[in-house]
Amino acid sequence: MTKTFDALARDDVLRTLATWHGEGRKAAIATVVSTWGSSPRPVGSQLGIDGDGNLVGSVSGGCIEGAVAKEALEAMQDGQSRLLEFGVSNEQAWEVGLACGGTVQVFVERLEG
Fold first, then answer.
1. CA distances from residue 25 to 30, 32, 65, 112 in whole angstroms, order as listed
2. Which DSSP letter does residue 65 get?
3. Within 10 Å of residue 31's Cβ, how many Cβ atoms?
4. What is the pLDDT along the chain (113 residues), one digit of tens a residue?
5. How, if at all, do strands 46-50 and 102-110 pair?
6. pTM to 2 decimals?
7. Residue 85 CB neighbour total at 10 angstroms
8. How many CB atoms lie within 10 A of CB 44?
9. Count: domains in the chain
10. Secondary structure E strands in the chain
11. Residue 30's closest CA among 76, 89, 77?
């Protein structure tokens, strides 16, 4: 069976997180759990973040990655998972030259050591 790009990317994120965990680093994983309308990454896309702010993978390929990484660093500190939602209305999208808006929900959780 041939793996898709998304499956290969997910494998890379999980391998890197396993390596970070083995090295004793704090880490968190962010997963796209829901999308509506236009979304740069599909459900199941993942981003790994370590305690130093290193990233592997992608949940947006854009501006929300920084916000997700910030929340992941906070989750590593307080142990609380988070469900984040980012979106652009159709009207806002049209104003900046995009065809349509969309929403993405990202679940962020600390990896336990």
1. 16, 23, 20, 10
2. H
3. 18
4. 444 445 556 679 999 999 999 999 999 999 999 988 777 788 999 999 999 999 999 998 777 889 999 999 999 999 999 999 987 665 554 454 555 567 889 999 999 86
5. unpaired
6. 0.82
7. 11
8. 12
9. 1
10. 27-37, 46-50, 55-57, 82-88, 102-110
11. 76
Containing domain of residue 31, as a range? Answer: 2-110
Beta-bridge mates of residue 49: 28, 55
How far apart CA 71 and CA 13 sit, in angstroms, is 18
Angle at 49 between CA 92 and CA 87, to 5 degrees: 15
Residue 10 to residue 74: CA distance in whole angstroms: 23
Q: Say which residue the tokens 């459900």 belong to.
A: 43
Residue type, 9: A
Tokens encoding 96? 């900046």
